[in-house]
Here is the input.
Amino acid sequence: MGATVPELETLYRRRYGAFLRLATAVTGEEARGADAVQDGFVQALVSRSDYRGEAPLEAWVWRIVVNAARAAQRRSTAAPRAVPATVRDDAEEDADPYGVHAWITSLPEQERLVVFLRYFADLDYRGIASALGVEVGTVSATLHAAHEALRRSLEESQR
Amino acid sequence: MTDIEDIVRSELERLYPEATGKPDWESVLKRAQLQSAAETARKVPRRWRLAFALGLPVLAAALAVGLLLASPWKSGPTAISAAEAATILKKTQAALTYRPGSVEHVKAQTTYTLIPLKKGTPSLAERVSGEWWIETAPPFQHRSLQTYRSQTLETGGGRKCHAHYVYYDPAAGSLYRDNRFDAADCGGSPLPFDPASAIRELVAAGALKLSGKTQIDGRSVYRFELLQHYYDKRMGGYMTLNGTGTLYADAHDYRLVRFEWDSYEPQSARYKPSPYGSYHAVVDYLAWDYLQPSAANLRLADIGKQHPAAHASTLDKMPNDATRRLVELMGACSAVPPIPAGGLCAPPSLVLGYGVGR
Here is the structure.
């Protein structure tokens, strides 16, 4: 089947902001995030004939970009960050009223990616599962557990 | 959507604000073309490699044409007469020629795309930004700040001609001089790294050809193609351009806007071990000024005056610290061997697009 260059270009132009936002969140730095998006799309173009159409094209590209961002994060000389330094610096307790920052930071990488793909990429469960190479049930369970943990945290903080 | 999802969404938007970067599809396309070409080359049987190598200029031309066809330049290069082209070249040269005695100030950012030697390894993008102050009269002091992966290396030099032989190590509070270059051949020019002289040489050698007019980030620019491969004897062949090169100058004030080139020679293989071979480099010039030779501006070009209390030593005595690692990555490449795996070799000449002499 394969993907075409115009299809990839359309996706790139339409969704660049979302790709960049997620890659920046993963790498902790916008410049490296931007490089990761470029790396991911280069890889997608070079291997576009490998796309089999088993999942939506966007989910296939998300998988490549997420992997590129993870690789960029690993290459970074800086220590891995859950959130950008600019966020971390002012994310004091009073700046994190719902504890979302602390919650995101505490998540294992895979679960954090599930959250990012849900909220930054607006992918449905199937799309997320395809992008991360996991079962749909895993995505559902991860998001449910993550939401429940946050809900409990909120309830405790309101007592 | 549940309340909890609303909270997560709005908080994530606050914690991770919209990124401001701009898309650059043309760069993606070109890198993909280069990577495909490199992978194709690897598949060529050994007996065909020589023929393939001989055909590289044709491949490079084909890539350039392909890029042109795939580019957003709707109308293609504007037709320019030979007389106009000669005038534009002269004006570009003039804009890039320093006023003797002035302090040349250049700010640039270079993005390297390193092409892997093995299939399956993704290409690697690396970015180096830098700022240079170059005194254009004796004693030719010069100083640079280069930033790579959020770490900055300060270098300087002067006296005779050669750039890049003093490094400042803030942790040690010392200036380390690489004295191997003291007797270096200046190549007939006191400023062998001056971009103007390099470009003048290219023009004089008939190696730059105006190929049209286009746009970069909404800026109208002239495009010049490099017609030959280059070998810089002043650096002992250290700088070699084997491939295509394109230079862009502003269509209004003729200042250099961008220089990009492809290297088909596995440069980094000279500094093994590295998983990468050829590369594509894009230098974006963010500032290019000729400052008055006031005391303050001359001080900017003088690394010694920037650090008057620094202890002076020689490069072989540099401690094994973060600055030394930066020198290994960005400095004189072979200055402090060995170059680490995947090390990026980016002296100021490379970052500025110098070293394109004969």
Remarks:
- The first helix of chain B runs from residue 3 to 15.
- The first strand of chain B starts at residue 103 and ends at 116.
